[in-house]
Structure formats: structure tokens, C-alpha cells
Inverse folding.
């Protein structure tokens, strides 16, 4: 079974925010919630790199592990989703997530953050697929139509790759072989100091 | 003959040079550009080593989104999913075990000569109010706090996800809101009973004589005995911890 | 989109045998000649003489005339593959066709339309005014490009500077260079008197470059389109750029006690113009240079004018307009406003 992943090629990202806009549009994400964002490292200096970051759909998702009401689940494709009905807005998933993917609609007193919202890999949520209710709560369900998330589809330089982990890793490897290894692929493996190189 | 050899030698040398020159051409053509575009590219590893997180510049007003990797999350997860379970279990169950053991061994400590029927005011209404406000909040805080850590193992299988979520949501609000009266209560307790809880030599004597919990001794004490003073200080000094939790 | 998959990723061409798009280049790049029945595949590479014009080749357009100062401006020894004229030729008109005897290839309908286009002088009807398309068709069928076959030129003799030379901007930070690189002399440009030279001289006399030492330039957001009013009304794009700002080098910021994200006043060299916006202290701009996006509007000299918009029509995000502090300048060739490079001063609020 395919494990769906994202890979942002930091050598290609031009900080155009097409992925951000595509996500906002496709999922009708309200103002203030940023499922996907582009961050630029070393801005203005040589070696400037931009990375598009959203939920990385971790195989061993920390958000799922720390949730007090276990509202997360991983689909057969490896996509990490959660139920907004069960979410209590405690904020634990944000603390545990290394990538800051969970977003909350309110900044209330004493953690009345509202229901957590995050990138769903355009896979919707626990409601029945392709229903208006699912769209309202979680956004588009492209995966059920056999399509990849819109952010990667709209990427102007094809730096943001989405798809089966093995396939996109191979694509990236081919690129690296062609052009040389620059800032590399940024993600889970290296976040926890478990890198390919020592 | 010699000149012929010399001639041949020079021709061979010339050809050798030519061959080497031609062979060297493809190599120079394949050499990478003098400028390596990735030379100054920052490596993920190096940023993590420097700052323990990777942060850059974004465009949206939420500056928290500028952090793209914070490995601290794993420590947080470890603490909340592993350590806290052990600490909580040992603290709660351990204390329960101690109490049960004491009860089984020593039993209840009864008034030696029975009740005399005469009543005196030990705590006025304000003190009682503060105490019960703090105690009620503590119980609520304790139970709802335990729900955060252990709820999904203990209660979720029994209640089902929907009911458990509703209960946890209410519990979360209860926990967050009762933290304030609790803290207020502890501060008031600290102020109210500070005078009576200053340790002195009588307490040393009290502890030496087992506080009356072992045997039939009844060591003297002022308003609060040594054991009570110990509980007081544990509660009052533990308050900063609860403050730090309330900030989260 | 239906046939997108048929096009080769490198040559951008569909295979010749495909019934619908056979031989076409993706997107039918300009120039794509003739009616659909003509089946021109589009010209992927301009001026490609190794292909017949019918198959996407072309010659260099002869738009500067036939000769100048006794020098032949038409191509010599360069012509398209399969061209019947093996030399340069001028733009095709009916007169040219008649001279070559090719006017007989025009159909009766085409000839009728040509007569209609210019009843008094049908010979003057050219490939670009012929509404029937016949002149183009005949030219291409004889292997010639309708727009002629001329030489490319390096000296653009009809432009203000036939070969581009450096000229200092009107508000220049380097008045010492004006002796050698002044802007063009004052002249009438269509209906506008272009007094750039006078303005430049006056600026030097008033010591503008000392009062306004920072070079100001402006640019476009990659997320935004056009002037900005529409984009700033789009809720998704407006969120990505919520504030007007000016990029300023850290060295310049330190000199002016400007902190990143702080409010600043940017003042311009003309009319005591001033604008208020946030400062982005970054190394994206060099020392002595400042950059602003030109997409914002709705503030004027620090005052928010949201209530001046028709009700419900105000964009989500408003900000100062760059043009408030930009200055005099017109492009010498087209007369287009050219205020982009100018001087400014920035101070912390």
C-alpha cells in the first residue's frame, strides 16, 4: 500500500506561495488558519532557501500519540487525519508536532482554541467521502478522486512533491544525482537528528 | 641512424602530447562550474546544531509559523506519554498503597478517651471557606488532570469516543478555570496559617516521638503539629508548580 | 487539454500522424499563419530558416524598409528552406505579388476582398491589412514569409539612442556622473513635453541627492497580479501580504534607528511627499537602496482612506501607494511613465 508523503525540494522552491494559495482555495481555509506556509531561511543572504511546510503525515505521528481524546487516525494510505467532533482544542498536538502543523481558529483564554485544523493531504476527514459536510469541516477530498493534493499539483517549480514516499524519494534522488546535493530534503528524519549522513 | 631515432622520438613525443591534449579536453569540459551554487546553502543539520530549531522568515503575521522544525516536540511527547504516566501512576497509586498499608497495619487513630461532648472553635468560617474552596478545586483539578493523562486508556474504552470527548472538553474547561480559585486559595492559606506553621523545637520533639501515630504517645503541639506543618509547606511550596502549569 | 498528453515533452510537438493535432507545436506559438484548413503548426522558434515557413520556419521581418543611406536592408544570402525567392524580399503587398506574377494564385473571393480593403489603390494592400488572408497564403505557399526577409539591425536609428548608452536617472544619487551621462535633452514627445533634463538639472542645483540619499525602486510581488486592487480584494492572496512595507538594508536601518517591523515615514523628492509604512530590515537590498512593492493603495500620507471607497468595494488590505513618493520621468521612446528609479529618505516614526 502506498505511503503518501510530501517532499519539498528546498533548492527549487522560489517562495511563490502558489501552494499556500492553492490550499486556501481548494479547502476554503478561513483567514488566520495556515495549513501550509512557506518559510525562507537565510533571507537575503547567499544560500537563501525556501521551504514549504505543512503537516508531514508522519508514520509515527506525535500528534496522534499525545492527543488526550485520541481523535487522530491514520488512513490506509498513511495520511494522518483527525476528527473535529472529538477534538477538545487542548493544544497538545501543537506542542508535540515538530513542524507546527496544527492550527487553531481562536486565541481564547485558557485554551479555548477551538477545533484544531491542519493539512489533510486533501483527504477530507471522518465524514462520508465527497459530502458537503466533509467539505465544510475538512476541505476537499481529492485523494478519493485519485488526485494528489493541490499544493503539489500547483507548485510552479515542482519543488513540492506529493505522492507515494518511494516514488517521490526516487524523483528527488534523480534530481540530486543530476545537480548535486544542496540543502537536501527537509523533514522528519533530519528533525530528530537521524540523518542519512552522519 | 641517430638522427633518425631522434626524429622518430620527437614525432612520438609530439603525438603523445597531442593525444594527451585531446584526451584532456573532454575532462575539462565535464568539470563543474567554477561557482558552486550550493556553496553557501545552509544545511539543515547545521541549523539544528546551532539553534536547536529551524526558524526562518515568513510572510503571515503569525510568527510561530516561521518555525519549521522544533525537535523539542519529541521531548514533550516523551514526557507526556511516558514519564508523566509513570510519575502519575506512582504518585497516585503509590500514595493509595501507602495509605492502605498504614490503615491495615495501624488502623484508625482514635481519640484515646472518647469524645467529651465539649466543642471549641478551631477554624473560623473564613478559614473553613478558604480550605474547602481550595480542596474542592483540588479534587476537580486532580480528577480532570488525571483525565488528560490517563483518560484515553481508562475511560475511553468504557464511554466511547463521542461521550469521552464531551466529558474531556468539559473537564478541560473545569481544569483551566478552577486553577484560579485554587491558586487564590493556596495563597490565602499561606497567609492565613503562616504564623501557625513556623517550625520550632516542639516539632522536632513531636517527630521524635512519632507524632502519636506509633504507640499511645501524645506529644504536645501548638496550633499545628509537626506533621500538619509538613503538609502545609508541601502544599504551599508546590504552588509555583501549579502556576507554571496554569501558564500553559 | 484533451490532447495534451500527445505532445512530446522536449520538442513540444505532436506526432505527425495524429488526426487532430498532428505536427502541431503545443499552444500553436505565434506566428501561426492562416485559416484552420491551412494547418500551420505554429512557429516554435522565430526566424528559423532551416524550416519552410509552412512548417513553422520564418525569416527576420523586413520592417525598416528596403534600403537606407544606399545600404540594402533586405537579407542577403539568407532565406527559408524551400523558399522560391533565394534572397531578401520586402513585406508582401498586392504590388509585390503582381511583380512576381503570383497574384494569379489569389482566388476570386480573395481578390474581391482586397479590392474592398483599398478600392482606390489595391496594390497598396499588404499582408497585414488584407482581410482575406490571401496575400499571406500565396506568399507562404511559395515558401516566403509574408512579412518579408530583411536583415536584423543593431543600430536602431529611429530611437532616441540608436545604440543604448548609459544615462543617469532624473533623480540620481550620483550627480557627479551627470557631466558624462546626462539624460536626454528636453523634447516634445507626442503631446507631452518631456522636460527630464531640466528636472535633472534642477534636482542637482537643489542638492536633492543629499536630502534624499537612498535609491528607491519598486517591484512586484510574485503572488500578486497587476496593480493590486483586485488581488488585495482576494481573501487568500491578501492574507499573504497584509502590510505595505519598505525593504531597507540593515546598515541603513541602524543609521536611522529603524527596527524590523517598525513604522517609518518614507519621504520623496517631489512635492514634500510622504508615506507611512512598516520597515522590513533585510539584506535583500544593498546599502543605499530601498525597495517597495507597488501593489498597495488606500492610504495617503499616513491617512487610511477606506471610507472613501464605494461601500463594500474596499479591498481587504490597504496600504500606502508607492507612486505617492515616486517622481518625474517618461520613457524617451514610448512616453510611458517611468518613475521607478528615484530617491527617498526614510526615518523612523
Amino acid at each position: 500500500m502506498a505511503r503518501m508523503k510530501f517532499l519539498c525540494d528546498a533548492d527549487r522552491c522560489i517562495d511563490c506561495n502558489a501552494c499556500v494559495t492553492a490550499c486556501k482555495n481548494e479547502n476554503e481555509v478561513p483567514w488566520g488558519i495556515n495549513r501550509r506556509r512557506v518559510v525562507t531561511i537565510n533571507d537575503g543572504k547567499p544560500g537563501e532557501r525556501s521551504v514549504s511546510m505543512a503537516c508531514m503525515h508522519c508514520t509515527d505521528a506525535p500528534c496522534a500519540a499525545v492527543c488526550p481524546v485520541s481523535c487522530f487516525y491514520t488512513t490506509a494510505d498513511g495520511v494522518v487525519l483527525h476528527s473535529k467532533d472529538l477534538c477538545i482544542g487542548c493544544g497538545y498536538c501543537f506542542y508535540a508536532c515538530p513542524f507546527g502543523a496544527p492550527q487553531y481558529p481562536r486565541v481564547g483564554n485558557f485554551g479555548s482554541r477551538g477545533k484544531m485544523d491542519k493539512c489533510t493531504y486533501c483527504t477530507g476527514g471522518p465524514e462520508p467521502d465527497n459530502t458537503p459536510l466533509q467539505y465544510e469541516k475538512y476541505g476537499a477530498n481529492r485523494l478519493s478522486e485519485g488526485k494528489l493534493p493541490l499544493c503539489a499539483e500547483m507548485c510552479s517549480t515542482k519543488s513540492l512533491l506529493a505522492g507515494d514516499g518511494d516514488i517521490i524519494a526516487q524523483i528527488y534522488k534523480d534530481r540530486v544525482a543530476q545537480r548535486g546535493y544542496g540543502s537536501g530534503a527537509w523533514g522528519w528524519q533530519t528533525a530528530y537528528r537521524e540523518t542519512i549522513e552522519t | 641512424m641517430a638522427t633518425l631515432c631522434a626524429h622518430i622520438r620527437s614525432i612520438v613525443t609530439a603525438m603523445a602530447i597531442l593525444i594527451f591534449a585531446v584526451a584532456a579536453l573532454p575532462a575539462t569540459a565535464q568539470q563543474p562550474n567554477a561557482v558552486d551554487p550550493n556553496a553557501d546553502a545552509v544545511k539543515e543539520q547545521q541549523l539544528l546544531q546551532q539553534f536547536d530549531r529551524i526558524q526562518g522568515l515568513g510572510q503571515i503575521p503569525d510568527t510561530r509559523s516561521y518555525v519549521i522544525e522544533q525537535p523539542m516536540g519529541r521531548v514533550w511527547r516523551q514526557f507526556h506519554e511516558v514519564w508523566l504516566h509513570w510519575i502519575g501512576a506512582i504518585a497516585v497509586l503509590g500514595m493509595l498503597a501507602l495509605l492502605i498499608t498504614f490503615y491495615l497495619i495501624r488502623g484508625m487513630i482514635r481519640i484515646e478517651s472518647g469524645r467529651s461532648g465539649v466543642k471549641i472553635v478551631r477554624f473560623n468560617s473564613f478559614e473553613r471557606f478558604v480550605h474547602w474552596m481550595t480542596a474542592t478545586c483540588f479534587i476537580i483539578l486532580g480528577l480532570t488532570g488525571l483525565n488528560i493523562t490517563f483518560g484515553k486508556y481508562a475511560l475511553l474504552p468504557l464511554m466511547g469516543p463521542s461521550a469521552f470527548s464531551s466529558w474531556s472538553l468539559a473537564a478541560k474547561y473545569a481544569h483551566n478555570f478552577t486553577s484560579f480559585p485554587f491558586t487564590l486559595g493556596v495563597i490565602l492559606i499561606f497567609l492565613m496559617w503562616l504564623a501557625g506553621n513556623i517550625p520550632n523545637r516542639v516539632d522536632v520533639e513531636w517527630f521524635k516521638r512519632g507524632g502519636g501515630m506509633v504507640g499511645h504517645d501524645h506529644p504536645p503541639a501548638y496550633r499545628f503539629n509537626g506533621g500538619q506543618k509538613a503538609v502545609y509547606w508541601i502544599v504551599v511550596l508546590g504552588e509555583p508548580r501549579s502556576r507554571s502549569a496554569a501558564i500553559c | 487539454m484533451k490532447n495534451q498528453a500527445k505532445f512530446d515533452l522536449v520538442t513540444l510537438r505532436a506526432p505527425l500522424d495524429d488526426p487532430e493535432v498532428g505536427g502541431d507545436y503545443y499552444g500553436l506559438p505565434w506566428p501561426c499563419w492562416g485559416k484552420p484548413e491551412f494547418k500551420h503548426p505554429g512557429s516554435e522558434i522565430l526566424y528559423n530558416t532551416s524550416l519552410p515557413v509552412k512548417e513553422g520556419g520564418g525569416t527576420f521581418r523586413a520592417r525598416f524598409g528596403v534600403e537606407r543611406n544606399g545600404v540594402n536592408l533586405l537579407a542577403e544570402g539568407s532565406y527559408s528552406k524551400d523558399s522560391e525567392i533565394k534572397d531578401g524580399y520586402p513585406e508582401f503587398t498586392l504590388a509585390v505579388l503582381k511583380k512576381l506574377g503570383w497574384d494569379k494564385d489569389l482566388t476570386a473571393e480573395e481578390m474581391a476582398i482586397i479590392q474592398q480593403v483599398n478600392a482606390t489603390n489595391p496594390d497598396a494592400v499588404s499582408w497585414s491589412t488584407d482581410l482575406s488572408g490571401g496575400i499571406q497564403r500565396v506568399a507562404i505557399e511559395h515558401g516566403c514569409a509574408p512579412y518579408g526577409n530583411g536583415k536584423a539591425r543593431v543600430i536602431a536609428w529611429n530611437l532616441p539612442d540608436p545604440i543604448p548608452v548609459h544615462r543617469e536617472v532624473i533623480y540620481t544619487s550620483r550627480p557627479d556622473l551627470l557631466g558624462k551621462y546626462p539624460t536626454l535633452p528636453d523634447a516634445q514627445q507626442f503631446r507631452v513635453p518631456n522636460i527630464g533634463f531640466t528636472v535633472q538639472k534642477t534636482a542637482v542645483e537643489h542638492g536633492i541627492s543629499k536630502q534624499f540619499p537612498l535609491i528607491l525602486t519598486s517591484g512586484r510581488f510574485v503572488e500578486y497580479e497587476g496593480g493590486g486592487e483586485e488581488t488585495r480584494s482576494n481573501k487568500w492572496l491578501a492574507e499573504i501580504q497584509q502590510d505595505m512595507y519598505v525593504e531597507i538594508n540593515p546598515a541603513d536601518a541602524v543609521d536611522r534607528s529603524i527596527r524590523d517591523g517598525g513604522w517609518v515615514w518614507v519621504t520623496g523628492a517631489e512635492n514634500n511627499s510622504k508615506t507611512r509604512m512598516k520597515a522590513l530590515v533585510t539584506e535583500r537590498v544593498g546599502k543605499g537602496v530601498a525597495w517597495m512593492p507597488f501593489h498597495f493603495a488606500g492610504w495617503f500620507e499616513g491617512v487610511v482612506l477606506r471610507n472613501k471607497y464605494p461601500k463594500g468595494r474596499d479591498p481587504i488590505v490597504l496600504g500606502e501607494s508607492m507612486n505617492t513618493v515616486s517622481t518625474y520621468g517618461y520613457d524617451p521612446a514610448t512616453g510611458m511613465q517611468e518613475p521607478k528609479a528615484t530617491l527617498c529618505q526614510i526615518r523612523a516614526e
